Amino acid sequence: MKNLFRQMFSFDRSSIRWRNFLATAAFTARVFLSIGIALFLAFMIQLESPMSTVTTVLIVANPTVGALVSKSVWRMTGTVIGAALSTAVMAMFVQSAVLYFMALSVFVGLACMTATCLRYFRAYAAVLAGYTIVIVAVPAFTHPENIFLSAMMRVSDVALGIVVTAAVFMVTSPRRRQGTMEALSGAFRETLRHALVFHEGLVRPAVIQDVQNAEPAVADGAFRTLPQTLYDGRQRLLGQLARLGPAIEYAATDNPDIHAGVRGYRLAVSRMTGLVASYHPYWRNLGIANPLSADVHREIRDTLTRILVLTESAGWIEQPQSVLACLEDALERLESLERSAISPEAQASVDNTRDILFQLREIVLDLSSPRGAHVRVRSGLHVEWMSAIYNGLRGMLIAFLACMIWYITYFPTGPMMIMYVVAASSLLSTVPSAARASVPMAIGTALSVPACWLCHIVALPRVDGYPMLWLSICACMLPGVWLQFHPRYGIGAFGYTVFLAMQLMVTNSMVVDDITLINTWLAILMGCVLLVLVFRVIMPADQRLYASRLVLSLGRSLQSLSSQPGAKVPSWMVWEGAQIQKVSSLLMRLSLVTSPIDRQGYVDGAFAALSLGRLLIRLRRAAEKAGLTAAQTEALNTALASFRMLRRDPAGTAASLREAARLIGSDNDPGMEDVFRVRLVACLEQSAHIIDSIPGFFHADGPLNCWFDERGTVKLVTATPAG
Q: Helices (DSSP H) in 147-290: which residue ranges?
């Protein structure tokens, strides 16, 4: 027992555990200080519901100042919009309760759907607009003529909480541009290390032979696995890059230097994600151990090693000349290797490697010159419309059910139940899986009921001044505030703190009403049951269906890319930026699928689909300079047109690509066009190889679409679906 307590309270001051403890303690102290000041000012200016300022503090507070500022701006925007909508809806349907409830439910559903479509804290404006309508309307249910006053009071509560929280955090939190730049530099170096492991393995003939002799996942050997360390490293690095995106957005809100170059930094993160996605088991040259391929991989291995040495210093981003010169030298040496690449297999090694070096050069330029003329790429926003519509329908249904339950039973604290379910469903619309998060949200809210009871029974009756009141409220909220950003307990802790503040009846003239308090607890518990009932029973999430829609969208984007005229083919960065968003969402959806599924196969298939899109773009560029004959041009067009049957007959598409490669590759006339013809053949061969390796990924009857016998043998994406 003595050793246990020693381990709990003895920290190494340089350890990650100690730093996390200090960061959490500092965040908690800032939150409690903001609560104390906001609640004191609410009492001083005689606000009608002072605890609303506490709720605002708990929702807005964020360890990152930029995130707090962004969240505050959008919270205020959503509150104003919600207050205006609430006033308008009450004015239009004041004579008919049922019509009012229907209109209220529609607006809540639209807010939930909009919140799902938006990113970062822009989604929060839609969330606030949704449940502010209810919060403003609740006090005016019995006296509709007071709706405007209720709206103004709500705006005042939120504004006070936002101003106090922002002031406390901005004064007490250090803000440094260097931290963001260090994170970007670290992510770039981690990306280099991930690539270096891959190429190091392909340089040594013994390792190549091991890869060739590795046991295939299917009988025909089309699918070859990489070492597990590469899969683990890729997953970790992709998670790091995914977290870096929001961090840049939030830092740009607070730091003018980051804001000025945010587009370049955002583009650099997207390029790094695409670079990591380039390394998958479907490289055409992975299964061909020819000497030239080893030379190419040895060249890029040495280049990556030199860049890692050059980027060790902290200021390399400000002075990237040596890194850029290293990349240019590597590209020149690669050109000399390309001239000796007379086979499509060897050219595949050169093409893939050149593509990687180009990406690295663009990443360095994006980091060092984020406001340069080259930063013009705008990646579109991918919206999962199916998930957005589903969340909108959930919000609409739960709001209408809660309103009708109160309308029929006339439960005294029914408006509290309405307020809770609307607020909870709106907040859940911003998380990746609303159905999965509904249970911890309901559990956290349910735990706030006994905490509220203890506060009213033990603490509040003994309070004889504001300091004691402040300390009592903070003590009750301590568990939720401390765990709010814990990966496992974050949603539940957030529900605990926010809805505990909603239940505490702390007013300027406190009158303890036990009956009202008990009814409030019953309303909250009824709301928890209704939340889980709607999100998990009536309208449960179908993660498998969501994942299949994303796979379908990837296939359609490839079909669209192959059918566009050469002059209208988009930049690979524009195309890939949208597809990476789909792949990120697909990874999350696959992790939530409970039925047996070939997850690793689908993950690698998604990354291979990105490479297939790049190959199509490179193919178009090579075709313009390859000097093709009429017959070769017709064969190429036929191969590209075969992508229309990718979902019905992927093997036929691959065969058409391979036939075009055979026809174009048979022309041995020397000249400048010969290099481009070899590039073209290499792209066609690689594209056919990718499609042949994962026919189940592209096929309409692939594993994700097979609903029968889900508990049977896992169906692989490397197998061609029957029928």
A: 147-172, 177-203, 205-213, 228-254, 256-260, 262-277
Written as six digits, the tokens of 273 are: 């994600």
- 314-336 pLDDT per residue, tens: 788 888 889 999 999 988 888 77
CA dist., res. 264 & res. 111, Å (int): 31
pLDDT value of residue 343: 66
Which strand (E) or helix (H) includes residue 56? helix 51-60
Q: 182-218, pLDDT tens digit by residue? A: 888 889 999 998 888 877 766 554 443 443 343 333 3
Give how far the C-alpha of residue 230 lies from the chain's centroid of Cα atoms, to the nearest Å.
22
Instruction: Return the HEC string of 424-484.
Output: HHHHHCCCCCHHHHHHHHHHHHHHHHHHHHHHHHHHHHHCCCHHHHHHHHHHHHHHHHHHC
What SS3 class is residue 224? coil
DSSP state, residue 378: -
**Under 8 Å between Cβ of 667 and 632:** yes
DSSP string, 616-652: HHHHHHHHHHS---HHHHHHHHHHHHGGGGTTT-HHH
- The per-residue pLDDT of the chain, averaged, comes to 80
Burial 635-661 (b: 16+ CB within 10 A, else e): bbeebbebbeebbebbeebbbbbbbbb
CA-CA distance, 192 to 197, in Å (whole number)? 9
pTM to 2 decimals? 0.80
To which residue do tokens 């529609």 refer?
Answer: 106
